[in-house]
Amino acid sequence: MSEKILEIKDERLSFFTPAGEVKALNGVSFSMNQGDVLGIVGESGSGKSVTAYSIMGLTAYPGRLVGGTVWFNGHQIDKMTEKEFRKIRGNEVSIIFQDPMTSLNPVYTIGNQIVEVILLHTKKTKQEAWARARELLELVGINEPDRRLKQYPHELSGGMRQRVMIAIALACEPKLLIADEPTTALDVTIQAQILELMNDLRHKLGMSIIMITHDLGVVAQMCEKIAVMYAGHIVEYGTTDEIFYNPQHEYTKGLINSIPKLNAEEKERLVPIEGQPVDLLNPPAGCPFAPRCKSCMKVCLNKMPPRTELSDTHYTYCWLRQKEEFEKGGKA
Amino acid sequence: MAKYIVKRVAMGIFSVFIVATLTFFIMNLVPGGPFVAEKSISKAAQQALAEKYGLDKPLGVQYLNYMNSLIHGDMGLSLKQRGRTVNQIIFSKLPVSARTAGLAVVVALCVGIPLGCLSAYNRGKWADNLIIVFATCGIAIPSFISSVVLLYTFGMNLKLLPTVGLNEPAAYIMPVTALAIYPTAYITRLMRSSLLDVMGQDYMRTARAKGVSSVKILFKHALRNAILPVITYVGPMLAGLMTGSFVVEKIFSIPGLGRDFVSAITNRDYMMIMGTTILLATLVIVANVVVDILYKIIDPRIKLK
Amino acid sequence: MENLKKNPLSLQLNVEDFAPASNDEKKSLVVMRESVNFWKDGMRRLRKNKIAMVSLVVILLIAFMAYVLPSLWPYSYEQQIKGSNNLAPFEYSAAEQKLIDQGESVFPHILGTDRMGRDFAVRVMMGTRVSLSVGLLASVLVLLIGATYGAISAFAGGWIDNIMMRITDILYTIPDILLIILLAMAIKEPLESLATKPGFGWMQKLGPNMVSIFIIFALLYWVGMARIVRSQVLTLKESEYVTAARALGASGGRIIKKHLLTNCMGTLIVTTTLQIPSSIFTESYLSFLGLGVAAPMPSLGSLATDAVKGMNTYPVLLIAPALMISIMILVFNLFGDGLRDAFDPKLKS
Fold this sequence. Notes:
The complex is a heterotrimer.
Chain A: E1 4-17, E2 20-33, E3 37-41, H1 48-56, E4 63-72, E5 75-76, H2 82-88, E6 93-96, H3 110-121, H4 126-139, H5 145-149, H6 158-170, E7 176-180, H7 188-205, E8 208-213, H8 216-222, E9 225-230, E10 233-239, H9 240-245, H10 250-257, H11 298-302, E11 307-309, E12 315-317, H12 319-331
Chain B: H1 2-29, H2 43-52, H3 59-71, H4 86-121, H5 126-140, H6 143-157, H7 173-199, H8 202-210, H9 214-251, H10 257-267, H11 270-298
Helix pairs in contact in B: 1-11, 4-5, 4-7, 4-9, 5-7, 6-7, 6-9, 7-9, 8-9, 9-10, 9-11, 10-11
Chain C: H1 2-6, H2 23-29, H3 38-48, H4 50-67, H5 69-72, H6 94-101, H7 120-156, H8 158-173, H9 176-196, H10 201-206, H11 208-220, H12 222-238, H13 240-247, H14 252-288, H15 300-308, H16 315-343
């Protein structure tokens, strides 16, 4: 078994807004090994990005870690200072953001922005750094790298800019790459290219990837393991096969039912998940999905379900699974 | 780039032409002539004077004559300060005004930008609140009021600073302060909101994610983007300083151009009015062109049209 | 039973707990926030903004002082009280002192009197009335002209738009104060002679100078407003929700009323409010140069100018109008900022 690179235990994080404490993460736990590709799926506001940003210490004001431990590559993240974070950011862990149109500084050339991160974290000279930047552009499949290095972000297309973002992220060969919806803002054809590129680079460089998305197609294509998040909880975790072919949480089932199927019967309709996400200012005492759950039971409304292990790699938090165990137990 | 500059300059010249034309005709709308007020002069002498300065000709001809000499760089003879050309008067007075206004620009930028940054970086804390209070009050005080208050306290009551003229370096303190208060306060507010806006941009998050230190983030990534609105303000700021200088020069008895302009209007010194208007308009228009070009250099996204 | 031991929690559970929950029970968990419309939401934000609310109260107080109080005041702004020249605040002239000694009550001169023996407090109030009226009316004029011009330009599009915008470009680069001063000079006397003609009595009442200031502001200050309105209408015209509304079959009138107006309104209100202090500013400045509202009607700027000469001996005469101008500009700016935060969603941080 390979080395454990990331371990998050019971992470709790809140945003302290004037309206009150918004509980964005309510006890998130998972771990990753070197080379793993983990997909985190969930709808907007479910805490996917917050989880990932906290690993890099990028939690936006007024957010604060209020509990739990996070270990990454031998660093205890929850105890790190801003100065220590700066050493690992862009170096051991880097990130690609959702919108490549706004993620590059408009007033500096592409080359300048790639070289910046190389000079920060390596002992390369300026010349070596520019050579490395050129090499990186080739690596991410940008033609005419010498010309591109001198161009400004607004002169490149969205897909091209996202490749530049990837080049920046990979500049120092990070152990972990966080991809925060890297393809959401791109055209479908470009999406496929970018995903292919990431898959390629992952095999070449052997880094771990956390893929944050609400697009189940992307996860199926890229990831080995999937964490499904809802209202700051991981409600189900498992391998891609387990999640897609044997979903156990009602929310996961809903997500999968809402994907169009190629082999579907003509009249089969997509099933949307009814209702609104919970208000994280006053999260319910029970299962956060209960108000929208078709199979909601009385217990769901006031007690948080415990963890049900379905296999070594698959677990979920749902009272229905507990009910099954209870009934099994009752019979036995 | 060259094409753009040529285009901007051409448009600038056109604007100056419009200003000159408007001024010429508005000015001639003002009832009473330049020599009417001088009762000592007889009707015949008035007639002779008008002939000498070409004021007896039809307005259209006067206009064409004036424009013709203007193209040759001649702004005519002053009607009131006899024997002196407008060019002479302007070149003797302009340096005085330029020095005060220039100092005020420097003060406004050197104080306003750092204050704005300080405020944005301490958003919501007491330093921010304090700066905001000062900046908001600064915007509410017209320069003639601040001049008078300064003059009254430091000049007359405490007798710390000279009240008249610009004969020693200390004499600059009060007029420059009075002129600089408004633009400083304005730049502080502008810088604060612009920096706050930039700090919320995605590329700032990218810079942090790269591991760039906060000092370098401020100076390299934030400032260059946040300074853009301040640069656009330089044109209007010059115009505002000009406005301020009219009264400040009057209050502190500074022999500058602003005072001449105001007295030229009351005296109907047509040539002087035309000369100063064209000069000041040209200054502001040139400043606007320079700002546009500077903007283009700092922000590569701006396309040259 | 082994399963139960694995899950100690389930020991506390009953079979009834696994009964399906009713819809009502589910709904009770969902706290829906009241859905509010743009105006209600904006008003709520505005009410929460303490600085803006204090400013509003101050504005109302100033308005009361300017429009109501002078008619209740025992002195009028033109009335020259004999022997009461250059009184300090709360000082009485010999004649007034005599009356007081005789047991009559004399209303105190809160801010003293000027050199012509006029009660200064009421003069400051009248000055405030003039300055405030100039600010309000000029802003409304600027709003009307600018909004019309900008909207026409944006809706017409094409070469009309092009020409109209070139005109504003040129006007924008011209330093307006020069033209303001020239115009103020130029139209002062024609208006004064016009005011004496029959049918223009209202002008006499208002003061030809005041009319000229309205004209000047209206002629020059609409440019900024026109640009803002045009860009607003243009972005809205192109915006997806308007396209969506059109695709859904909404009529032109409905689109303008529901979408364009609602979205422009915030910006219009904010820009107009912020125009008020800048009009007050310019008027006081013009008055200071002797080109503003003239005697006998005092404006704050002219009151300040009159006091400059004697400021060493009678500082109150200068400080009172100067303070008033500054407070007015300050509160309108603060209130405008509050409005912007509340009603201009695009500028909201």
